[in-house]
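Q: Study each token:
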Amino acid sequence: SVLQENLESHVKRCPLLKQNVALSGQVFYQKGINAGNEEEEEKMGSCYSVVTSEMKRNLVYSMSVSEFHQLIKKIEAVHCSIRNDIEDSHLSPEACNIWFNKEIDRKLPFQEKHVLQQGSILGNLEKIGALKRCNTNVECCEKDDDVPAVVEFGAGRGYLTQMLADCYGVKKVYLVERKSYKLKADRSLRQKENLVLERMRIDIEDLNLNAVESLQGVPYVAVGKHLCGPATDLSLRCCLSRQDGESPVLRGLAIATCCHHLCQWKSYINKEYIIGMGISKDEFHALTWFTSWAVDDDHGSKVPGVEGIDLIASKEEEDGDKVEDDSLSSVEEVVKNMKPMKRAVLGFKCKQIIDAGRMKWVKKHGLDSKLVKYIPASISPENTLLVAGKLSPVLA
């Protein structure tokens, strides 16, 4: 904030204002292009506003106890229809051995848990056919015209792309990130011979990927590690909503989802799926609020065994801990009396329902898509990966 008397002089030197003016002049900047269009909102009867965590909590607590129990039953039923679609796929691709074995530039930051996550993301892209591993070494990829470009959404410092370039010979890199970072991978990437790097400091909501001239008609893979809340939906819409002859050619995508409690109805990619499952807009907001229970330090992390919870095999836990209790007069009391394990299980189920809608939307847009647990929960409880590749005889 700036004092009223200082406002005029501040505007003249404000770096954020200069950045916004420069951004608005870029051909790929289109305000709100990936936010969800008004026609879609009107069709679903939605208003265009952000629902805060406090508003979501108040929405849940304003329910009657009976309505709350009915919503839990609805969540259980919906989850039963999708739970078998999520498989374990913890991969350590041979192509990434130079990172696994720490045979990299010592100036690059190395945290084993992040390297394992990044390697499995790339391994799942390779498994689905969106990436090709070189037979001998990365240098052979330099002569391969079939090597796709990479667009990393929510790139942060860009170390997922750094591994891609080191291990798969990617030569064209686009890093999409709205924040400014120090000590990022850009310096190392720019030292690579023939590698073209473009960092776009822009909100994913405003990025028209089709207007990036150097990417037009170019095959690419889209990646994102822990794309928080609605950022996953914005990225999917950015890649798949507007396909034409000059569009970049999406060969595959791998997005590790997280922070589902931040998801918003206005930006969620597959409202039709949610409504088709009998879940209303308000109930969707309740689902997003429940997801915080899955990884909340006040709940799951303090309960022995929650870290490795297997939702598919949790029926015994559910049968032994029923939510309904007619002696409780308010939903707030019901929630406070739920066992931490029960809340954690419910939170994970809600996260998977939200991700299932995303996976089905991607499939509807012509890609072979699936959800996998790409790393053990002991490394990160946020271990769901949406991975998709172009349909082919091999994948069909």
Observations:
- The radius of gyration is 22 Å.
